[in-house]
Amino acid sequence: DQQVKQNSPSLSVQEGRISILNCDYTNSMFDYFLWYKKYPAEGPTFLISISSIKDKNEDGRFTVFLNKSAKHLSLHIVPSQPGDSAVYFCAASIVNSGNTPLVFGKGTRLSVIA
Amino acid sequence: DGGITQSPKYLFRKEGQNVTLSCEQNLNHDAMYWYRQDPGQGLRLIYYSQIVNDFQKGDIAEGYSVSREKKESFPLTVTSAQKNPTAFYLCASNSISGNTIYFGEGSWLTVV
């Protein structure tokens, strides 16, 4: 039973355009969400996070939006660059219960085409 | 340099053998984790430990064992009971007060 779902296995975007990666979750107890970026044969690197008390968090070209009522979050990358090509994982945890381990989605492979 | 070190990067194992993957961190993090990545499966939690001498099973603990004798070390043993051990293994850690976990570079295990 997947608690965190990334329904798009892959996404292709032109360089300079916006990339939108989506993530849905089923557990309403989740209160902290993160996005990680992963290159092949490397460990994931932390990208950006958002607490459930917010609906938006921005860091440079990366913005995460949270819609709690829909149990949906998205990562926007603007403008997209070829170096953004990687697999992006959405993750969630329950911080208020003492930091439960992160639950990850299956990932979305982003290809930014020059 | 501060970080999480996994070794070896590549490991080949014959069927029926146990192997141990090393994970060391010098970040003074309290909690450590082992995840496994398979194609199309995302990251699945094997075991985690929030304090020394204590650890908890994750979603796919069968065929694996761990120990946490020191705060900085969390080795993972892949036993012969693990039916499909070929995968990319990732160790991670965080402080109890922190919400973000940080990963090592990963270890490839191949059964031959």
- Rg over CA atoms of chain A: 14 Å
Question: Could you say which overall geometry of chain A the principal axes of the C-alpha atoms support?
Answer: globular
Q: Which structural class do the helices and strands of chain A define?
A: mainly beta
Q: What global shape of chain B is seen?
A: globular
E-strand count of chain A = 11
Number of contiguous helices of chain B: 0
Mean pLDDT of chain A comes to: 94
| Beta-strand content estimate of chain B | over 45%
Write down the secondary-structure element order of chain B: EEEEEEEEEEE
Number of helices of chain A: 0
Please count the beta strands of chain B (DSSP E, at least 2 residues each).
11
In angstroms, what separates the terminal alpha carbons of chain B?
Answer: 35 Å
Derived structural class of chain B:
mainly beta
Helix content of chain A: under 10%
Report on the structure:
The complex is a heterodimer of chains A (114) and B (112). Chain A has no helices and eleven strands. In chain A, a hairpin with a 2-residue loop joins strand 6 (56-59) and strand 7. Chain A starts with a strand and ends with a strand. In chain A, 0% of the residues lie in helices and 53% in strands. By secondary structure, chain A is an all-beta fold. In chain A, strands 2, 4, 5, 9, 10 and 11 form a six-stranded mixed sheet that branches. A five-stranded antiparallel sheet of chain A has the order 1-3-8-7-6, with no helix packed on it. Chain A has strands at residues 4-5, 10-14, 19-25, 32-38, 45-51, 56-59, 62-67, 72-77, 86-93, 103-104, 108-113. Chain B is mainly beta and 112 residues long. Helices cover 0% and strands 52% of the residues of chain B. Chain B has no helices and eleven strands. In chain B, strands 2, 4, 5, 6, 9, 10 and 11 form a seven-stranded mixed sheet that branches. In chain B, 37% of the residues are buried. At the A-B interface, strand 4, strand 5, strand 9 and strand 10 of A face strand 4, strand 5, strand 9 and strand 10 of B.
